[in-house]
Design goal:
Length: about 110
C-alpha cells in the first residue's frame, strides 16, 4: 500500500483527462528546472513531476498515478511518441494529451503494415 502523504520517486502512467491518451509521469525529488531553459536551478530541493517531459503540478498527478508504475524505458517511449506527434501530426491525440480525444477530427491510428 502506497502512502499518499509522501510521493514516491519513479515512473508511472495515467490519463490527464478522461478519454485522453496515456502519458508517462516522472516523479522525483531534486532541484527544479528553469521553465524557459530547462537548466537545473540553484534552489532548494522539492518534489516535482513531468508528464511526457513537460512540467506538471505534482498535486495534479500524485497520488492518482500510483496504480500504474512503469519502467523508465516505457516512460521514454511515451515521451518520444508525444514529441513525434507534435512534430509530424498535430491531429494525433498524443500531440495534446491534456485534451480529450475527439475521433472525428483525429488521425486514425495505424497498427502496422
Amino acid at each position: 500500500m502506497v502512502s499518499v502523504e509522501e510521493p514516491v520517486a519513479g515512473f508511472y502512467r495515467m490519463r490527464l483527462v478522461r478519454g485522453g491518451p496515456l502519458v508517462g509521469i516522472r516523479i522525483w525529488h531534486g532541484r527544479p528546472k528553469d521553465p524557459l531553459t530547462g537548466e537545473i536551478m540553484d534552489r532548494s530541493w522539492r518534489w516535482q513531476a513531468e508528464a511526457n517531459g513537460d512540467p506538471i503540478d505534482l498535486d495534479r498527478v500524485w497520488p492518482a498515478c500510483t496504480g500504474d508504475e512503469i519502467a523508465s524505458a516505457e516512460y521514454d517511449y511515451l515521451k518520444r511518441r508525444t514529441e513525434h506527434a507534435r512534430q509530424h501530426d498535430g491531429f494525433d491525440p498524443t500531440a495534446n494529451p491534456r485534451r480529450r480525444t475527439n475521433w472525428n477530427d483525429s488521425t486514425i491510428p495505424s497498427f502496422g503494415d
